[in-house]
Amino acid sequence: MWKQNRVTKRLNIRYPVIQAGMAGGATPPELVAAVSEAGGLGTLGAGYLSPEGIRGAVREIRSRTSKPFAVNLLVTEAVKPSPKEVRRSQELLDPYREELGLKRQEPANFAESFEEQIQVLMEERVPVFSFTFDIPEERWLKRFREMGTTLIGTATTVREAQLLEKAGVDLVVAQGAEAGGHRGTFAGPSDRAMVGTLALVPQVADQVKVPVIAAGGVMDGRGLAAALALGAEGVQLGTAFLTCEESGAHPVHQEKILSGTEESTVVTRAFSGKPARGIRNRLIQDLSSRERTLPPYPVQNALTRDIRKAAALNRDPELMSLWAGQGLRLSRRGTAEDLIRKVVGEAEEVLRRLTRDTSRYF
Ligand SMILES: Cc1cc2nc3c(=O)[nH]c(=O)nc-3n(C[C@H](O)[C@H](O)[C@H](O)COP(=O)(O)O)c2cc1C
Q1: Which of 80, 216, 252, 345 is the most buried (most CB within 10 A)?
Q2: What chemistry does it catalyse, as a reaction equation (predicted)?
Q3: Domain containing 271: what range?
């Protein structure tokens, strides 16, 4: 039985293991509930869901578990791109549309309304709200605090962790450069914030008082034990949960993860306009020399949506966004409960071995 620490106590969970909220359908209510039922914290990746979609999913999670869970949002402001930058990107994307038999259409909106999404989280009184890409306005955070919602922010540097702490979050995710999906960087240039988990976590832990959760490349119990050694009090796993039975990740995405290696991924702006780590493919390769000209998130994300959707229908990995971290060889199949049980069991073994055999070291 694991002793409680500040993370498990605050989240009211058994094991310090969080399943990352992953926008785009990878974290359906079945997965979220299974993780929470197994003693971790399941998270609904709600970034791309409509307000009513979020409400439905939250209710579905609650019908499956009475345990705590989180909802994750992408802090996004309404944008007005210049027609020129949109046209330039559309022209780069048109050849793929032609290949897929699609006609170019201007997206009706670039992203869901963050304000409406957050409103639903309040109305549904979700127990934990986690977020990335920025810090929500103080008026929102204040209301969540008054309601007793636990707040988790994402940092990729010490300075971001300090800003989150100042804003009053309860827990900070330190997202290392190994992490799959979008970089959470919000204070400073993202290329300077590519700090590996091993270097980032102890520096963040030294500089903030709030408990730290390590994310990026954690796939098994060795990763959990290492994160604890670095001063984290929990881990957040994304990629490892994508290949679970309850995952909503596309089967082609799952196959690519299971056959991938530490060399398979790259950080790209091609799909969304924001740096994100995914498995290298044709679209990423083709647009690599044009990345600087692409419009920012969420514009580019909206412009590539039709292509990504059609490619997924065709089971074509070359034009899909296959977000994944660097720990690919450590991915495995099984249920979410199996994964949590294994991660926790392996960590116990590592910690026991390290403390039993100290004569091996000094
Ligand atoms: C497919 C995918 C989608 C992601 N979407 C989100 C998201 O919507 N919100 C978020 O805070 N983090 C998101 N992340 C990042 C995770 O929170 C986490 O930082 C990352 O998965 C940790 O690295 P790992 O993939 O090596 O475990 C995503 C990651 C992946 C792989």
Answers
A1: 216
A2: 3 propionate 3-nitronate + 3 O2 + H2O = 3 3-oxopropanoate + 2 nitrate + nitrite + H2O2 + 3 H(+)
A3: 80-110+265-323
Residues 112 and 60: their CA atoms lie apart, in Å, by 21
Q: Which residue has a Cα nearest atom 29 of ligand 1? A: 181
Side-by-side strand order, sheet with 171-175: 17-19, 234-237, 212-215, 171-175, 150-155, 128-132, 69-74, 42-45
Q: Are residues 198 and 339 in the same domain?
A: yes
Domain count, the chain: 2
What is the rounded CA–CA span in Å between residue 42 and residue 32?
A: 4
Pocket residues for ligand 1 (CB within 6 Å)? 20-23, 26, 45, 47, 72, 74, 132, 154, 175, 178-181, 215-218, 236-240, 323-325, 327
Helices (H) and strands (E) counted in the chain, each on its own, are 15, 11
Compute the distance between CA of residue 253 and CA of residue 163 in angstroms, rounded to an integer. 35
Considering the domain architecture, whether residues 87 and 231 belong to the same structural domain is answered as no
Tell me, yes or no, whether 280 and 134 share the same domain: no
Mind giving me the DSSP string for 42-58? EEEE-TTS-HHHHHHHH
Rounded-to-integer distance, Cα 259 and Cα 236, Å: 22
Predicted confidence at residue 244, as pLDDT, reads 98
pLDDT at 228 exceeding the cut of 90: yes
Residue of 182, 185, 200 to mutate, ligand 1, most atoms within 8 A of C-beta: 182
Query: What value does the mean pLDDT take over residues 108-137?
Result: 97
Q: Are residues 280 and 184 in the same domain?
A: no
